[in-house]
């Protein structure tokens, strides 16, 4: 009997350990299998819709782990409705090379040209977050104010499409415009688009999701601080922006949002 | 066996294609059948309540596809509670000509007179969106700031009811007031009502739903930009406002909201 | 068979009429039966919690239809948790005279003294709505800006408790303070309490619910208008505030909120 | 029969009394049993996530009732996902001494050092509430404006990490930084962290939950008042801040939030 009790205790303890370690906020390795990557991309679409980053028109992509000259991006449907069957595989010319046939987002060139220009970037978000819009139209630079947005680094560049292409419908609808935007982005983690929104880049889907969310939190807090402080605002020291970078890969946010999406 | 496997693969692929194409964000043709139009109108009532455009007092209508001198509008109940049995058919004098008998909205004349004055308009929203109110009472013009609100065109006219009728209860309660409002609207896509709200017009229910929502997004962003930018704000160039117009008929927004309403 | 078909048609039509008329936004007569009044009060507690007017500390009461010298108010629990078993019957001295025994809200004197001073008032809300707080501490008067808040009439009085009782814990914890507040309220439809919140009064529960909600909507819009308009804001003309009063008894709002509470 | 009816009435009345008294907003004694304390801590994690105080990165702890030199705090997972199996027992050096083995929050030293410096503190929250951020970066002091935030006492101190440790990643990642923060906190009920968030302390979990929530409400209202009032704002008199303190231990808020968490 004692032996059985001991076995039961050991079993119970092991179960607890297993349950616990499965919820450890360890940095998940980016999936190498395309089905796994596509599943993560679908989840990212839903997470970013739920936490307010993506409206019906924004999008998120991930560079293929099998082929760094390809990336995955959904068809031109609302991010909140994306399933695995909607994911298209593109080459860096933003031409479809895999996945179910479908019409892509008009602005898929945002993703293709950024992946081409930035070998370090593994995931890209294009969003219309209302919180950043005032920073796209006033000349006031969006800068890191809170430690969770340290990744912004310094003032974020603003892409003014008229400098590249004069009067347009304001969409990044071809490779030339995509290259112009990528040039404005340079080595930054984000860029704003005047009267339009933003792009955010990162080394993984989890990180790009966290960065997009906290960019909006920073923007809203910065605007309030500017108004209340009559312009006298303390931003992150450049050294702090550097050091605060490797938070935890925003893994904890991803785990919380993943649970919240599943609970809906 | 190989033959059967092949058949199964073909069947699976076909199902995927069918599922995918049914979710293509193609521009849905406006329904010509009155039952279909009424069903879409009911859905519009619920979508616009869910996304915050309509409170218990706002309303949305659609011009009849069978008879351009008629339009459909619910009885005087909250938009969020409308069913097909609540829809009334009106002539352009805003007199009931069909549907279950019922008391109409006091302000049904907003719809009748706009349909009369604007043969191009197929759907009308009257809302009390709080975000636009500051633009109705300060003389600051609501103008397109974001590409999703390019439809605003230029500064939106403001209807001051005292110019037409002196001191009133501020409701558009007869044809004369409806005509005065329609005159202020002119050829614009929207007009504001001082201390009251707005009207938004469009070539379809899907478009009027998207326009009403993004008008509020624009209003809120514009107000924040004006305050943060100390008045120095970059608006859409008139040419951009023209070119950015045919977004996608706001079809993608409609699909997302339709899914969200169904999930409630 | 024709006779049966006719009967079926008549039956179907009658059902539709019945269903429709039961959802007509007619002004519901205030219930005369105490159980019915208590049920309405419980619903008001839940509606006002759901629509953001009442936090865990606010409360709402209704004058007894059987005895105008009595009123109903819940025990000192969060409004969102109130049931019929929690409702206490008070006299105008805010002493319990009926209902299950229980500890009342410390500030029940707000209700008792207002019912005593205002024979026209049948329902009272005391709330901590954050939107009105800035108007209680800046000297900027809360005034009707939108037609849905016409009931405010003119600038709303602000009760400064230090004028009555010096340094206190800021609660209306006895009849003397209740009388002082009622005096500040005078014949107005609402009064603000400095650094605390507001009281709103009305001829019925449905109206006090609508007034409380739209007071907050007005406050938020007014604050934004004041900031954007650099002080130049157009308020309702006094005549408009008078005429816009009998909206519909806020019956349409009540019906919407009642449906939303039931759906939770 | 009459006797049976009488018995039934007595039984019914007793049941009502029992039901009522079980929902009396009496001040619950802090649980002395560790399992009970851990259960309350888990609930606090979920309440504070639901009411917006804690994002994926904030945390809440409670001093052990069995051993005042120990405290309970979850592993480094999002507060909204915490279960009893995730709670760790720490000593005042923030070293694990009990509970399932796990990696703790990097900033557990916030809790350990505050418990060491403040024998009166039984619960601690560390949050990133966006509403307080502007007060951490503008030099404008957060002060009690509303009676529900009287606990703030007076202007809240701001911890500037560069004064202690120069350029860092801005986290309180060791005992030295924890001591520096505790020194800034002094005998206050809260302290702000520049560009980061806040800590709030209290004699119990229920009180620290209510204080954290109403600190954010106060911050938002204060910011709006400062902007609208052109700087002329009436704050709580110091005497009022003292007297308004023993509200009800925020017990009513806790009961409401507990019910709302259970209903999700």
Walk me through this protein's architecture.
The structure is a homotetramer of 264-residue chains. With 264 residues, chain A is α+β, with helices and mostly antiparallel strands. Chain A contains 9 helices and 8 strands. In chain A, strands 4-3-2-1-5-8-7-6 form an 8-stranded mixed β-sheet, with helices on both faces. The model of chain A is unreliable at 18-27 (pLDDT under 50). Chains in contact: A-B, A-D, B-C, C-D. The interface between A and D is large, with 39 and 35 residues.
Task: Give me the secondary-structure topology.
4 copies of one chain form a homotetramer.
Chain A: H1 2-22, H2 34-50, E1 59-63, E2 70-74, E3 87-91, E4 96-99, H3 108-117, E5 123-127, H4 133-137, E6 158-159, H5 161-165, H6 175-185, E7 190-193, E8 197-202, H7 205-228, H8 238-243, H9 251-263
Parallel strand pairs in A: 6-7
Antiparallel strand pairs in A: 1-2, 1-5, 2-3, 3-4, 5-8, 7-8
Helix pairs in contact in A: 2-7, 2-9, 3-6
Observed structural traits:
homotetramer; alpha+beta; 14% strand; globular
Stretches of chain A where pLDDT is under 50 for at least 5 consecutive residues are: 18-27
- Please name the two chains that share the biggest interface, counting residues whose Cβ lies under 8 Å from a Cβ on the partner chain: A-D, 39 and 35 residues
Q: Number of helical segments of chain A? A: 9
Number of strands of chain A: 8
Shape of chain A: globular
Report the radius of gyration of chain A as a whole number of Å: 20 Å
What is the typical, i.e. mean, pLDDT of chain A? 91
Order of strands in the sheet with most strands of chain A = 4-3-2-1-5-8-7-6
Oligomer: homotetramer
What is the straight-line distance between the termini of chain A? 45 Å
SSE order of chain A in H/E notation? Answer: HHEEEEHEHEHHEEHHH
Helix content of chain A: 40-55%
The biggest beta sheet of chain A is recorded as: 8 strands, mixed
Structural class of chain A: alpha+beta
Name the beta content range of chain A: 5-15%
């Amino acid at each position: 009997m004692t032996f059985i009790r001991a076995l039961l205790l050991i079993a119970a303890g092991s179960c607890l350990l297993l349950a616990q370690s499965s919820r450890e906020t360890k940095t998940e390795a980016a999936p190498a299998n395309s089905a796994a990557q596509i599943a993560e991309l679908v989840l990212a679409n839903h997470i970013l819709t739920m936490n307010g980053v993506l409206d019906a028109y924004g999008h998120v992509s991930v560079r293929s782990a099998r082929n760094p000259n390809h990336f995955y991006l959904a068809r031109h449907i609302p991010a909140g409705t994306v399933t695995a069957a909607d994911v298209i595989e593109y080459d860096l010319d933003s031409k479809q090379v895999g996945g179910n046939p479908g019409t892509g987002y008009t602005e898929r060139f945002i993703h293709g040209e950024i992946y081409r220009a930035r070998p370090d970037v593994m995931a890209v978000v294009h969003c219309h977050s209302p919180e950043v819009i005032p920073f796209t139209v006033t000349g006031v630079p969006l800068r890191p104010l809170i430690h969770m947005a340290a990744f912004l680094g310094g003032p974020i560049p603003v892409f003014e499409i008229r400098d590249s292409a004069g009067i347009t419908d304001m969409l990044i609808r071809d490779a030339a415009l995509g290259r112009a935007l990528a040039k404005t982005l340079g080595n930054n983690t984000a860029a704003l688009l005047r009267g339009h929104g933003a792009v955010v880049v990162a080394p993984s889907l989890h990180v790009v999701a966290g960065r997009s969310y906290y960019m909006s939190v920073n923007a809203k807090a910065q605007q309030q601080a500017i108004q209340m402080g009559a312009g006298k605002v303390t931003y992150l020291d450049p050294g702090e922006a550097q050091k605060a970078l490797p938070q935890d890969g925003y893994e904890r946010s991803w785990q919380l949002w993943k649970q919240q999406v599943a609970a809906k």
